[in-house]
Amino acid sequence: MSTAQMTRPPQTLYVSIRRDELRQLKAERDQLQQEVLRLRSHLQGQLDQPSSTQPALC
């Protein structure tokens, strides 16, 4: 025996955000994207550079 579950349509959630909060979030996003690019570049440099010793992962 199984319990019948009623399925509801998805609900839309509306939120308000202040302009200064939006600017701060955009700046944070840009900073994180730059960090991702820097880390990718660093990782690619590590992969391109043949090395006999691999650093330990922490």
TrEMBL record:
Keywords linked to the UniProt accession: Coiled coil
Domain of life: Bacteria
Pfam families found in the cross-reference section: DUF6026 (PF19491)
Coiled coil: 15-49
Protein name: Uncharacterized protein
Lineage: Bacteria, Pseudomonadati, Pseudomonadota, Gammaproteobacteria, Pseudomonadales
